[in-house]
Amino acid sequence: MKIRKGKSAEKDIIASLIMEAMDADCCQHLAGPEHSLQEFHQLISLLVAEEENLYSYRNTLVAVDDEGQVIGACISYDGADFRQLRIPFIKLSKTYLGMDHSEMKEETQAGELYVDSLCVTKRFRHQGVATALLKATEEKACRSGIKYVGLLVDKGNPKAEKLYHTLGFRYVEDTSWAGHPMKHLIKSVAGPTARI
User: Fold this and answer.
1) Longest dimension (CA), the chain
2) Per-residue model confidence as pLDDT tens for the chain (196 residues)
3) If DSSP codes are grouped into helix, strand and coil, which group holds residue 191?
4) Burial level of 122, CB count in 10 A (0-12/13-18/19+)?
């Protein structure tokens, strides 16, 4: 397994992993009642292929197997950039889905590298792929001079929460996202690291 930066050409698999991380209910909530999950996938794929937005390949680290196939992805960005990076998602949601997400609560803030989405394909779960992606994300934070890595975990996903606590994340507050109750966790990171 190798961790590297994502590529625009990998937009479809990265979009699928983002949607799996969100879960089908959240995706349908964001797509709206008049649109399918496939239509939402097309929107996310468009965003992954572009630059300067939440889901851009530029914000993505991928894990690849020995054949070079993407088996996991972690999307993260500076929380200070959240509002600006969210604008393309809001615009495309209005254009393609007729949904206005401009009033959604902000997920992150300045001072943390925010893990927006983390997912590993089913076949490669429980093999350390998510841990490797998170460690690479911590290195990204250190290189960027950001002292904390933050994420939201669904209250209905205790296995993921246990993994995050094992890796040193701590609870900050209760919150919600796309109609789901969540917990905001952070981890302090510091020190120089190798480049990815």
Assistant:
1) 48
2) 999 999 999 999 999 999 999 989 889 999 999 999 999 999 999 999 999 999 999 999 999 999 999 999 999 999 999 999 999 999 999 999 999 998 888 889 899 999 999 999 999 999 999 999 999 999 999 999 999 999 999 888 888 899 999 999 999 998 878 777 889 999 999 755 444 4
3) coil
4) exposed
Q: In what order do the strands lie in the sheet with 180-188?
A: 2-5, 60-64, 70-78, 112-120, 148-154, 180-188, 170-177
Three state DSSP letters for 103-166? CCCCCCCCCEEEEEEEEECHHHCCCCHHHHHHHHHHHHHHHHCCCEEEEEEECCCHHHHHHHHH
Query: Of 162, 166, 170, 172, which Cα lies nearest the Cα of 187?
Result: 170
**Partners of 184 in the beta sheet?**
152, 173
Q: Give residues with Cβ within 8 angstroms of 150, minimum separation 6.
A: 79, 108, 112, 113, 114, 115, 172, 184, 185, 186, 187
Q: 30-60 burial by CB neighbour count: b if 16+ within 10 A, else e?
A: bbeeebeeeebbbbbbbbbbbeebbbbbbbb
Q: Token digits for 176? A: 């919600």
- Looking only at the bridges linking them, the beta strands covering 180-188 and 60-64 are unpaired
What is the pTM (predicted TM-score) of this model?
0.91
SS3 74: strand
